[in-house]
Amino acid sequence: MVPRSHRSLSWKRKRMVTFFVIAKVHGATVLGVEGFLIDVEVDISRGLPGFEIVGLPDVAVRESRQRVRAAMKNSGFGFPMQRLTVNLAPADLRKSGPAFDLAIALGILAASGTLNPDLLSGVLILGELSLDGSVRGVAGVLPMLMAAAEAGVPRALVPADNEEEAALVDTIEVGIVKHLLDAAAMLEGRSPLVRPRPRDFDLEIEVDRDLAEVRGQFTAKRALEIAAAGRHNLLLMGPPGCGKTLLARCLPGILPPLSFTEAMEVAKIYSIAKGCRAPLRLSRRRPFRSPHHSSTVAGLIGGGANPEPGEVTLAHHGVLFLDEVGEFRRTVLDVLRQPLEDGRVSLVRHGYSITYPARCQLVLAANPCPCGFFGSSAKDCLCTGGELASYRRRLSGPLLDRIDLQVWMDRLPAHEYDFPAEPSAAVRERVAKAWEHLRAIEEGQLVIEIAPDAQAVLAQAVEKFKLSVRAVDRIQRVARTIAVLAGSGRIETRHLAEALTYRLSL
Prior knowledge:
Largest sheet: 5 strands, parallel
Helix content: 25-40%
CATH class of the largest domain: Alpha Beta
Strand content: 15-25%
Number of strands: 20
Radius of gyration: 28 Å
CATH architecture of the largest domain: 3-Layer(aba) Sandwich
Shape: elongated
Strand order of the largest sheet: 11-14-17-10-18
Number of domains: 3
Protein backbone atom coordinates (compact mmCIF):
# COMPACT_ATOMS: atom_id res chain seq x y z
CA MET A 1 0.00 0.00 0.00
CA VAL A 2 1.43 3.39 -1.00
CA PRO A 3 1.56 5.85 1.97
CA ARG A 4 -1.00 8.64 1.84
CA SER A 5 1.75 11.27 1.74
CA HIS A 6 2.88 9.82 -1.59
CA ARG A 7 -0.61 9.54 -3.04
CA SER A 8 -1.36 13.25 -3.11
CA LEU A 9 0.73 15.95 -4.75
CA SER A 10 0.89 19.57 -3.66
CA TRP A 11 -0.91 20.85 -6.74
CA LYS A 12 -3.73 18.42 -6.05
CA ARG A 13 -4.76 20.43 -2.99
CA LYS A 14 -7.01 22.32 -5.39
CA ARG A 15 -8.95 19.03 -5.47
CA MET A 16 -10.99 18.08 -8.50
CA VAL A 17 -11.47 20.82 -11.05
CA THR A 18 -14.57 21.18 -13.17
CA PHE A 19 -12.62 21.45 -16.41
CA PHE A 20 -9.60 19.82 -17.99
CA VAL A 21 -6.67 21.23 -19.97
CA ILE A 22 -4.59 19.88 -22.82
CA ALA A 23 -1.26 18.91 -21.34
CA LYS A 24 1.88 18.79 -23.45
CA VAL A 25 5.19 17.12 -22.64
CA HIS A 26 8.27 16.30 -24.71
CA GLY A 27 8.98 12.70 -25.64
CA ALA A 28 11.34 11.34 -28.28
CA THR A 29 11.78 8.53 -30.75
CA VAL A 30 14.60 7.18 -32.90
CA LEU A 31 14.63 6.75 -36.66
CA GLY A 32 17.82 5.15 -37.92
CA VAL A 33 20.46 6.38 -35.47
CA GLU A 34 19.03 9.87 -35.03
CA GLY A 35 16.71 11.02 -32.27
CA PHE A 36 13.59 13.10 -32.96
CA LEU A 37 11.59 15.13 -30.43
CA ILE A 38 7.91 14.23 -30.16
CA ASP A 39 5.20 16.34 -28.55
CA VAL A 40 3.01 14.12 -26.35
CA GLU A 41 -0.35 15.92 -26.16
CA VAL A 42 -2.96 14.64 -23.72
CA ASP A 43 -6.62 15.68 -23.90
CA ILE A 44 -9.39 14.62 -21.51
CA SER A 45 -12.95 15.30 -22.64
CA ARG A 46 -16.48 14.35 -21.63
CA GLY A 47 -17.87 11.15 -23.07
CA LEU A 48 -17.73 7.41 -22.62
CA PRO A 49 -14.49 6.24 -20.98
CA GLY A 50 -11.83 5.44 -23.55
CA PHE A 51 -8.10 5.67 -24.10
CA GLU A 52 -6.76 6.28 -27.61
CA ILE A 53 -3.22 6.93 -28.83
CA VAL A 54 -2.87 8.50 -32.29
CA GLY A 55 0.06 9.76 -34.33
CA LEU A 56 1.41 6.69 -36.15
CA PRO A 57 2.27 4.55 -33.09
CA ASP A 58 3.52 0.99 -33.38
CA VAL A 59 2.24 -1.95 -31.31
CA ALA A 60 4.60 -1.26 -28.38
CA VAL A 61 3.36 2.34 -28.17
CA ARG A 62 -0.31 1.34 -28.35
CA GLU A 63 0.21 -1.24 -25.59
CA SER A 64 1.33 1.57 -23.28
CA ARG A 65 -2.36 2.17 -22.49
CA GLN A 66 -2.46 -0.92 -20.27
CA ARG A 67 0.95 -0.24 -18.71
CA VAL A 68 0.16 3.40 -17.94
CA ARG A 69 -3.27 2.62 -16.47
CA ALA A 70 -1.90 -0.08 -14.13
CA ALA A 71 1.20 1.95 -13.16
CA MET A 72 -0.89 4.99 -12.20
CA LYS A 73 -3.34 2.91 -10.17
CA ASN A 74 -0.60 1.00 -8.35
CA SER A 75 1.24 4.26 -7.60
CA GLY A 76 -1.80 5.71 -5.84
CA PHE A 77 -3.03 8.01 -8.60
CA GLY A 78 -6.58 8.05 -9.86
CA PHE A 79 -7.17 7.33 -13.55
CA PRO A 80 -9.68 9.66 -15.26
CA MET A 81 -12.89 7.94 -16.29
CA GLN A 82 -13.50 10.23 -19.29
CA ARG A 83 -12.53 10.11 -22.93
CA LEU A 84 -8.72 10.24 -23.06
CA THR A 85 -6.82 11.04 -26.27
CA VAL A 86 -3.03 11.06 -26.59
CA ASN A 87 -1.56 12.58 -29.74
CA LEU A 88 2.08 12.01 -30.71
CA ALA A 89 3.11 14.89 -32.96
CA PRO A 90 4.25 15.20 -35.68
CA ALA A 91 1.70 12.65 -36.79
CA ASP A 92 3.52 11.64 -39.98
CA LEU A 93 6.66 10.40 -38.16
CA ARG A 94 6.68 6.75 -37.15
CA LYS A 95 6.91 6.15 -33.37
CA SER A 96 8.16 2.90 -31.89
CA GLY A 97 9.08 1.41 -28.54
CA PRO A 98 7.89 1.88 -24.95
CA ALA A 99 9.85 5.09 -24.24
CA PHE A 100 6.62 7.19 -24.22
CA ASP A 101 5.07 5.46 -21.15
CA LEU A 102 6.36 7.88 -18.51
CA ALA A 103 5.61 10.94 -20.64
CA ILE A 104 2.03 9.77 -21.25
CA ALA A 105 1.46 9.08 -17.53
CA LEU A 106 2.73 12.51 -16.47
CA GLY A 107 0.70 14.13 -19.24
CA ILE A 108 -2.45 12.44 -17.92
CA LEU A 109 -1.67 13.66 -14.41
CA ALA A 110 -1.30 17.21 -15.74
CA ALA A 111 -4.40 17.09 -17.92
CA SER A 112 -6.54 15.75 -15.06
CA GLY A 113 -5.45 18.46 -12.62
CA THR A 114 -3.23 16.32 -10.42
CA LEU A 115 0.01 17.92 -11.62
CA ASN A 116 0.67 21.50 -12.65
CA PRO A 117 0.97 21.46 -16.49
CA ASP A 118 3.54 24.26 -16.39
CA LEU A 119 6.00 21.90 -14.68
CA LEU A 120 6.17 19.80 -17.86
CA SER A 121 7.32 22.70 -20.03
CA GLY A 122 10.86 22.30 -21.34
CA VAL A 123 11.35 18.77 -19.99
CA LEU A 124 12.10 15.64 -22.03
CA ILE A 125 10.50 12.58 -20.39
CA LEU A 126 11.73 9.07 -21.27
CA GLY A 127 11.03 5.67 -19.74
CA GLU A 128 9.00 2.48 -19.86
CA LEU A 129 6.60 1.82 -16.98
CA SER A 130 6.20 -1.44 -15.14
CA LEU A 131 2.77 -2.31 -13.77
CA ASP A 132 3.89 -1.29 -10.25
CA GLY A 133 5.00 2.15 -11.46
CA SER A 134 8.74 1.52 -11.56
CA VAL A 135 10.60 2.91 -14.56
CA ARG A 136 12.53 0.60 -16.88
CA GLY A 137 15.36 1.53 -19.23
CA VAL A 138 14.73 2.05 -22.94
CA ALA A 139 16.82 1.91 -26.10
CA GLY A 140 18.05 5.04 -27.83
CA VAL A 141 18.38 7.40 -24.84
CA LEU A 142 21.69 8.83 -26.07
CA PRO A 143 20.49 10.04 -29.52
CA MET A 144 17.23 11.25 -27.93
CA LEU A 145 19.10 13.37 -25.39
CA MET A 146 21.38 14.72 -28.11
CA ALA A 147 18.33 15.70 -30.18
CA ALA A 148 16.79 17.45 -27.16
CA ALA A 149 20.02 19.34 -26.46
CA GLU A 150 20.21 20.51 -30.08
CA ALA A 151 16.58 21.69 -29.90
CA GLY A 152 17.28 23.73 -26.77
CA VAL A 153 15.31 21.58 -24.30
CA PRO A 154 16.94 22.39 -20.95
CA ARG A 155 16.00 19.37 -18.81
CA ALA A 156 15.28 15.65 -19.09
CA LEU A 157 14.15 12.76 -16.89
CA VAL A 158 15.52 9.36 -17.87
CA PRO A 159 15.44 5.86 -16.29
CA ALA A 160 18.14 4.82 -13.85
CA ASP A 161 19.01 1.91 -16.18
CA ASN A 162 20.19 4.49 -18.75
CA GLU A 163 22.36 6.48 -16.34
CA GLU A 164 25.62 5.51 -18.08
CA GLU A 165 24.63 6.95 -21.47
CA ALA A 166 22.78 9.90 -19.94
CA ALA A 167 26.09 10.97 -18.40
CA LEU A 168 27.60 11.30 -21.88
CA VAL A 169 25.47 14.36 -22.70
CA ASP A 170 26.59 17.32 -20.60
CA THR A 171 24.67 20.02 -22.49
CA ILE A 172 21.33 19.18 -20.86
CA GLU A 173 20.34 18.85 -17.19
CA VAL A 174 19.41 15.21 -16.64
CA GLY A 175 17.51 13.66 -13.73
CA ILE A 176 17.51 9.94 -12.97
CA VAL A 177 14.18 8.37 -11.99
CA LYS A 178 13.31 4.90 -10.73
CA HIS A 179 9.56 5.25 -10.20
CA LEU A 180 6.61 7.28 -11.44
CA LEU A 181 6.39 8.85 -7.95
CA ASP A 182 10.04 9.97 -8.25
CA ALA A 183 9.32 11.75 -11.53
CA ALA A 184 6.32 13.60 -10.10
CA ALA A 185 8.22 14.55 -6.94
CA MET A 186 11.22 15.87 -8.91
CA LEU A 187 9.00 17.96 -11.16
CA GLU A 188 7.23 19.52 -8.15
CA GLY A 189 10.50 20.16 -6.35
CA ARG A 190 9.58 17.93 -3.38
CA SER A 191 12.53 15.70 -4.23
CA PRO A 192 15.98 16.85 -5.38
CA LEU A 193 17.03 16.16 -8.96
CA VAL A 194 19.18 13.01 -8.98
CA ARG A 195 21.87 13.63 -11.56
CA PRO A 196 23.88 10.90 -13.31
CA ARG A 197 27.38 10.33 -12.05
CA PRO A 198 29.90 11.86 -14.46
CA ARG A 199 31.74 9.42 -16.70
CA ASP A 200 35.23 9.95 -18.11
CA PHE A 201 36.30 9.04 -21.61
CA ASP A 202 37.84 5.57 -21.28
CA LEU A 203 41.47 6.17 -22.28
CA GLU A 204 42.59 2.58 -21.89
CA ILE A 205 42.74 0.43 -25.02
CA GLU A 206 42.06 -3.17 -24.10
CA VAL A 207 43.52 -5.71 -26.51
CA ASP A 208 41.95 -9.16 -26.65
CA ARG A 209 44.72 -10.75 -28.66
CA ASP A 210 48.23 -9.41 -29.21
CA LEU A 211 50.34 -9.94 -32.31
CA ALA A 212 53.09 -11.20 -30.01
CA GLU A 213 51.01 -14.39 -29.71
CA VAL A 214 51.26 -15.06 -33.46
CA ARG A 215 54.40 -16.94 -34.40
CA GLY A 216 55.62 -16.98 -37.98
CA GLN A 217 53.12 -16.17 -40.74
CA PHE A 218 55.20 -13.17 -41.78
CA THR A 219 53.35 -12.58 -45.06
CA ALA A 220 49.96 -12.66 -43.36
CA LYS A 221 51.10 -10.31 -40.58
CA ARG A 222 52.53 -7.93 -43.18
CA ALA A 223 49.17 -7.97 -44.98
CA LEU A 224 47.39 -7.32 -41.69
CA GLU A 225 49.52 -4.24 -41.06
CA ILE A 226 48.87 -2.93 -44.58
CA ALA A 227 45.13 -3.57 -44.14
CA ALA A 228 45.15 -1.65 -40.85
CA ALA A 229 47.17 1.26 -42.25
CA GLY A 230 44.97 1.74 -45.32
CA ARG A 231 41.70 0.42 -43.86
CA HIS A 232 41.59 -2.21 -46.59
CA ASN A 233 39.37 -5.28 -46.67
CA LEU A 234 41.23 -8.54 -46.12
CA LEU A 235 40.72 -12.23 -46.94
CA LEU A 236 42.75 -14.89 -45.12
CA MET A 237 42.56 -18.35 -46.69
CA GLY A 238 44.28 -21.50 -45.54
CA PRO A 239 43.85 -24.93 -43.90
CA PRO A 240 42.40 -25.34 -40.40
CA GLY A 241 44.68 -24.40 -37.53
CA CYS A 242 47.06 -22.12 -39.44
CA GLY A 243 46.13 -19.05 -37.37
CA LYS A 244 43.55 -17.19 -39.50
CA THR A 245 41.13 -16.46 -36.66
CA LEU A 246 43.86 -15.53 -34.18
CA LEU A 247 45.41 -13.12 -36.67
CA ALA A 248 42.07 -11.49 -37.48
CA ARG A 249 41.33 -10.95 -33.80
CA CYS A 250 44.63 -9.07 -33.50
CA LEU A 251 43.48 -6.40 -35.97
CA PRO A 252 41.61 -4.13 -33.49
CA GLY A 253 44.76 -4.01 -31.35
CA ILE A 254 46.85 -2.43 -34.11
CA LEU A 255 44.23 0.13 -35.17
CA PRO A 256 44.50 3.68 -33.78
CA PRO A 257 41.96 4.42 -31.02
CA LEU A 258 38.64 6.08 -31.72
CA SER A 259 38.48 9.85 -31.62
CA PHE A 260 35.86 11.44 -29.36
CA THR A 261 33.55 12.11 -32.33
CA GLU A 262 33.88 8.53 -33.58
CA ALA A 263 33.32 7.16 -30.07
CA MET A 264 30.07 9.15 -29.78
CA GLU A 265 28.90 7.82 -33.15
CA VAL A 266 29.57 4.26 -32.01
CA ALA A 267 27.85 4.92 -28.67
CA LYS A 268 24.72 6.17 -30.48
CA ILE A 269 24.56 2.94 -32.48
CA TYR A 270 24.88 0.74 -29.41
CA SER A 271 22.33 2.88 -27.59
CA ILE A 272 19.61 2.02 -30.13
CA ALA A 273 20.61 -1.65 -30.54
CA LYS A 274 18.12 -3.57 -28.42
CA GLY A 275 20.33 -6.65 -28.38
CA CYS A 276 23.25 -4.73 -26.79
CA ARG A 277 21.74 -3.49 -23.53
CA ALA A 278 24.89 -3.75 -21.42
CA PRO A 279 25.83 -0.48 -19.64
CA LEU A 280 27.10 1.91 -22.28
CA ARG A 281 30.60 3.33 -21.86
CA LEU A 282 32.38 5.82 -24.03
CA SER A 283 35.47 3.87 -25.06
CA ARG A 284 38.35 4.44 -27.46
CA ARG A 285 38.34 0.79 -28.42
CA ARG A 286 37.18 0.07 -31.95
CA PRO A 287 34.23 -2.34 -32.34
CA PHE A 288 34.94 -5.92 -33.35
CA ARG A 289 31.96 -7.98 -34.51
CA SER A 290 32.10 -11.65 -35.43
CA PRO A 291 28.65 -13.03 -36.31
CA HIS A 292 27.98 -16.76 -36.69
CA HIS A 293 27.74 -18.20 -40.19
CA SER A 294 24.03 -18.92 -39.65
CA SER A 295 23.31 -15.16 -39.67
CA THR A 296 20.46 -13.90 -41.84
CA VAL A 297 20.38 -10.93 -44.19
CA ALA A 298 18.56 -8.85 -41.56
CA GLY A 299 21.07 -9.90 -38.92
CA LEU A 300 23.98 -8.81 -41.08
CA ILE A 301 22.80 -5.50 -42.55
CA GLY A 302 19.78 -4.76 -40.35
CA GLY A 303 16.05 -4.88 -40.84
CA GLY A 304 13.02 -6.61 -39.37
CA ALA A 305 9.46 -5.50 -38.73
CA ASN A 306 10.82 -2.79 -36.44
CA PRO A 307 14.20 -2.20 -38.12
CA GLU A 308 17.32 -2.52 -36.02
CA PRO A 309 20.97 -2.09 -37.01
CA GLY A 310 22.78 -5.20 -38.21
CA GLU A 311 26.30 -6.43 -37.64
CA VAL A 312 27.77 -4.25 -40.38
CA THR A 313 26.46 -1.17 -38.53
CA LEU A 314 27.51 -2.43 -35.10
CA ALA A 315 31.02 -2.67 -36.59
CA HIS A 316 30.97 1.01 -37.69
CA HIS A 317 34.47 2.52 -37.31
CA GLY A 318 35.71 -0.97 -36.45
CA VAL A 319 36.09 -4.48 -37.83
CA LEU A 320 33.50 -6.93 -39.15
CA PHE A 321 35.04 -10.41 -39.08
CA LEU A 322 33.33 -13.28 -40.89
CA ASP A 323 34.98 -16.51 -39.80
CA GLU A 324 34.39 -19.66 -41.86
CA VAL A 325 33.02 -17.41 -44.58
CA GLY A 326 32.55 -20.41 -46.88
CA GLU A 327 29.72 -21.56 -44.60
CA PHE A 328 27.73 -18.34 -45.02
CA ARG A 329 24.93 -18.39 -47.56
CA ARG A 330 25.85 -16.58 -50.75
CA THR A 331 22.70 -14.45 -50.63
CA VAL A 332 23.74 -13.23 -47.17
CA LEU A 333 27.28 -12.38 -48.26
CA ASP A 334 26.21 -10.53 -51.39
CA VAL A 335 24.20 -7.96 -49.42
CA LEU A 336 27.53 -6.63 -48.14
CA ARG A 337 28.51 -5.32 -51.56
CA GLN A 338 26.65 -2.00 -51.36
CA PRO A 339 27.61 -1.20 -47.72
CA LEU A 340 31.27 -1.84 -48.56
CA GLU A 341 31.08 0.71 -51.38
CA ASP A 342 28.86 3.37 -49.78
CA GLY A 343 29.71 3.05 -46.09
CA ARG A 344 26.02 2.98 -45.17
CA VAL A 345 22.93 0.75 -45.27
CA SER A 346 19.65 2.10 -46.64
CA LEU A 347 16.50 0.18 -45.71
CA VAL A 348 13.23 1.09 -47.40
CA ARG A 349 9.96 0.21 -45.69
CA HIS A 350 6.38 1.08 -46.52
CA GLY A 351 6.03 4.80 -45.93
CA TYR A 352 9.54 5.51 -44.66
CA SER A 353 13.23 4.76 -45.11
CA ILE A 354 16.12 4.33 -42.66
CA THR A 355 19.84 4.83 -43.18
CA TYR A 356 22.41 3.25 -40.86
CA PRO A 357 26.16 4.05 -40.97
CA ALA A 358 28.31 1.08 -41.97
CA ARG A 359 31.86 2.31 -42.51
CA CYS A 360 33.72 -0.73 -41.28
CA GLN A 361 36.68 -2.88 -42.29
CA LEU A 362 35.78 -6.35 -43.54
CA VAL A 363 37.99 -9.34 -42.69
CA LEU A 364 37.14 -12.79 -44.03
CA ALA A 365 38.66 -16.12 -43.00
CA ALA A 366 38.02 -19.20 -45.11
CA ASN A 367 39.17 -22.74 -45.66
CA PRO A 368 40.13 -23.39 -49.28
CA CYS A 369 37.67 -26.29 -49.65
CA PRO A 370 35.09 -28.29 -47.65
CA CYS A 371 37.71 -30.62 -46.15
CA GLY A 372 40.02 -27.66 -45.62
CA PHE A 373 43.28 -29.00 -47.09
CA PHE A 374 43.25 -27.99 -50.75
CA GLY A 375 46.72 -26.60 -51.50
CA SER A 376 47.98 -27.44 -48.01
CA SER A 377 51.36 -29.00 -47.35
CA ALA A 378 49.96 -30.82 -44.31
CA LYS A 379 47.40 -33.19 -45.88
CA ASP A 380 45.97 -34.16 -49.23
CA CYS A 381 42.60 -32.72 -50.23
CA LEU A 382 39.77 -35.28 -50.44
CA CYS A 383 37.20 -33.04 -52.15
CA THR A 384 35.89 -33.66 -55.63
CA GLY A 385 36.05 -31.04 -58.34
CA GLY A 386 32.33 -30.38 -58.04
CA GLU A 387 32.51 -29.93 -54.27
CA LEU A 388 35.43 -27.53 -54.64
CA ALA A 389 33.66 -25.48 -57.32
CA SER A 390 30.44 -25.29 -55.29
CA TYR A 391 32.36 -24.20 -52.20
CA ARG A 392 34.29 -21.49 -54.02
CA ARG A 393 31.08 -20.11 -55.55
CA ARG A 394 29.95 -19.01 -52.07
CA LEU A 395 32.22 -15.98 -52.56
CA SER A 396 30.91 -14.20 -55.63
CA GLY A 397 33.19 -12.38 -58.05
CA PRO A 398 31.76 -8.91 -57.27
CA LEU A 399 32.35 -9.46 -53.55
CA LEU A 400 35.90 -10.71 -54.07
CA ASP A 401 36.52 -7.67 -56.26
CA ARG A 402 35.95 -5.54 -53.17
CA ILE A 403 38.55 -7.42 -51.10
CA ASP A 404 41.80 -5.49 -51.42
CA LEU A 405 44.20 -8.04 -49.92
CA GLN A 406 43.82 -11.79 -50.42
CA VAL A 407 46.39 -13.84 -48.54
CA TRP A 408 47.18 -17.55 -48.50
CA MET A 409 48.25 -19.03 -45.16
CA ASP A 410 49.72 -22.52 -44.69
CA ARG A 411 50.66 -24.54 -41.66
CA LEU A 412 53.53 -23.13 -39.64
CA PRO A 413 56.94 -24.81 -40.11
CA ALA A 414 58.54 -25.96 -36.87
CA HIS A 415 61.52 -23.59 -37.15
CA GLU A 416 59.28 -20.49 -37.24
CA TYR A 417 58.01 -21.12 -33.71
CA ASP A 418 61.27 -19.77 -32.31
CA PHE A 419 61.13 -16.38 -34.06
CA PRO A 420 60.25 -13.51 -31.67
CA ALA A 421 56.99 -11.80 -32.57
CA GLU A 422 56.42 -8.03 -32.62
CA PRO A 423 53.80 -6.78 -30.15
CA SER A 424 50.65 -4.98 -31.29
CA ALA A 425 51.66 -1.68 -29.65
CA ALA A 426 54.73 -1.31 -31.89
CA VAL A 427 52.70 -2.00 -35.04
CA ARG A 428 49.96 0.38 -33.89
CA GLU A 429 52.45 3.26 -33.79
CA ARG A 430 53.39 2.71 -37.44
CA VAL A 431 49.75 2.38 -38.43
CA ALA A 432 48.85 5.65 -36.63
CA LYS A 433 51.58 7.51 -38.52
CA ALA A 434 50.36 6.04 -41.79
CA TRP A 435 46.81 7.22 -41.00
CA GLU A 436 48.02 10.78 -40.51
CA HIS A 437 49.96 10.69 -43.77
CA LEU A 438 47.06 9.18 -45.73
CA ARG A 439 44.63 11.71 -44.25
CA ALA A 440 46.86 14.52 -45.47
CA ILE A 441 46.87 12.95 -48.95
CA GLU A 442 43.07 12.61 -49.00
CA GLU A 443 42.67 16.23 -47.90
CA GLY A 444 44.98 17.42 -50.66
CA GLN A 445 47.75 18.61 -48.35
CA LEU A 446 50.17 16.05 -49.78
CA VAL A 447 50.48 14.43 -53.19
CA ILE A 448 51.87 10.98 -53.85
CA GLU A 449 52.40 10.06 -57.49
CA ILE A 450 53.04 6.75 -59.19
CA ALA A 451 56.43 6.28 -60.84
CA PRO A 452 56.40 5.80 -64.67
CA ASP A 453 57.93 2.31 -64.47
CA ALA A 454 55.34 1.30 -61.85
CA GLN A 455 52.60 2.63 -64.13
CA ALA A 456 53.93 0.43 -66.92
CA VAL A 457 53.86 -2.64 -64.65
CA LEU A 458 50.27 -1.89 -63.72
CA ALA A 459 49.28 -1.57 -67.39
CA GLN A 460 50.81 -4.98 -68.11
CA ALA A 461 48.93 -6.53 -65.17
CA VAL A 462 45.65 -5.05 -66.38
CA GLU A 463 46.16 -6.53 -69.84
CA LYS A 464 47.34 -9.94 -68.63
CA PHE A 465 44.88 -10.56 -65.80
CA LYS A 466 41.88 -8.63 -67.23
CA LEU A 467 41.51 -6.53 -64.10
CA SER A 468 38.37 -4.47 -63.58
CA VAL A 469 38.43 -0.72 -63.07
CA ARG A 470 37.57 -1.26 -59.39
CA ALA A 471 40.42 -3.77 -59.02
CA VAL A 472 42.90 -1.31 -60.56
CA ASP A 473 41.78 1.44 -58.23
CA ARG A 474 42.11 -0.80 -55.19
CA ILE A 475 45.55 -2.05 -56.26
CA GLN A 476 46.71 1.56 -56.52
CA ARG A 477 45.30 2.32 -53.06
CA VAL A 478 47.09 -0.67 -51.54
CA ALA A 479 50.33 0.33 -53.28
CA ARG A 480 49.93 3.87 -51.92
CA THR A 481 49.52 2.46 -48.40
CA ILE A 482 52.66 0.34 -48.83
CA ALA A 483 54.58 3.38 -50.04
CA VAL A 484 53.42 5.44 -47.05
CA LEU A 485 54.45 2.68 -44.62
CA ALA A 486 57.86 2.62 -46.32
CA GLY A 487 58.21 6.40 -45.99
CA SER A 488 58.39 6.89 -49.75
CA GLY A 489 57.16 10.02 -51.49
CA ARG A 490 55.85 8.15 -54.52
CA ILE A 491 54.63 4.69 -55.54
CA GLU A 492 57.59 2.69 -56.80
CA THR A 493 57.59 -0.57 -58.75
CA ARG A 494 58.31 -2.63 -55.62
CA HIS A 495 55.28 -1.15 -53.88
CA LEU A 496 53.01 -1.91 -56.82
CA ALA A 497 54.45 -5.42 -57.21
CA GLU A 498 53.68 -6.21 -53.57
CA ALA A 499 50.14 -4.89 -53.97
CA LEU A 500 49.64 -7.11 -57.02
CA THR A 501 50.80 -10.21 -55.15
CA TYR A 502 48.11 -9.69 -52.53
CA ARG A 503 45.51 -9.28 -55.24
CA LEU A 504 46.49 -12.26 -57.37
CA SER A 505 47.79 -14.81 -54.83
CA LEU A 506 44.62 -16.96 -54.67
